[in-house]
Amino acid sequence: MPRQVGEPAVGAEAVAPFITGILVAALVPPWGQYMIIAALLPLALFGKPADRRIIQPTMIPPRRRVINADTVVRAYARAGLCDPAKEGMKLGFAGRMTRDKHDKGSLVPVAMPRGKTFEQAQPRHYFCMRAAVPSGPRAGM
Fold first, then answer.
1. How far apart are CA 122 and CA 74, in angstroms?
2. Closest to 72 (Cα-Cα) out of 105, 117, 114, 28
3. Cα dihedral 103/75/128/112 (nearest 10)
4. pLDDT tens per residue, range 75-128
């Protein structure tokens, strides 16, 4: 359907139930309104998807993001723990990036470049992550 035809059709679909509701409220007696609701409720239950409610809540849950691989590489490079330009000094990832068990942040298993150890990374790791990552939007803080 062309866009010019589709937009008025969507507008008519949005206005038609509103006008119908006004007419029913004005012309049908209260007992008839209850009968209409009683007839429509089973149809709503039958026609909805199995995993959703009939009426969705107005508040949406917060987005939970997984940290980007580029952000991790830039943070480790800034701390001097890797160099993406050199072949032997690239940072590797030992697994998938996921949410941590408390659902507060991201869990990123990292394979350090050859010659770098955990002891070298640990003193710089806290500073590195706190300095480099907050340059983006702070979600969930």
1. 17
2. 105
3. 90
4. 888 888 888 888 888 888 888 878 778 777 777 888 888 887 777 776 654 554
Written as one letter, the residue type at 2 is P
**Tokens standing for 121?**
């990374």
Instruction: Name 36's Cβ contacts closer than 8 Å, sequence gap at least 6.
Output: 24, 28
The answer to whether the beta carbons of residues 71 and 90 sit under 8 Å apart is no
Residue 93 has which token pair?
């990832």
Q: What angle do CA 75, 77, 64 make, to 5 degrees?
A: 25
How far apart are alpha carbons 108 and 106 in whole angstroms?
6
Specify which residues 111 forms β-bridges with: 92
Residue 42 tokens, joined: 């089973």
The verdict on pTM exceeding 0.90 is no
Contacts for 23 with CB less than 8 Å, ≥ 6 apart: none
DSSP string over 101-123 = TTSSSEE--EEPPTT--HHHHHH
Distance in angstroms (rounded) separating the CA atoms of residues 39 and 45: 11
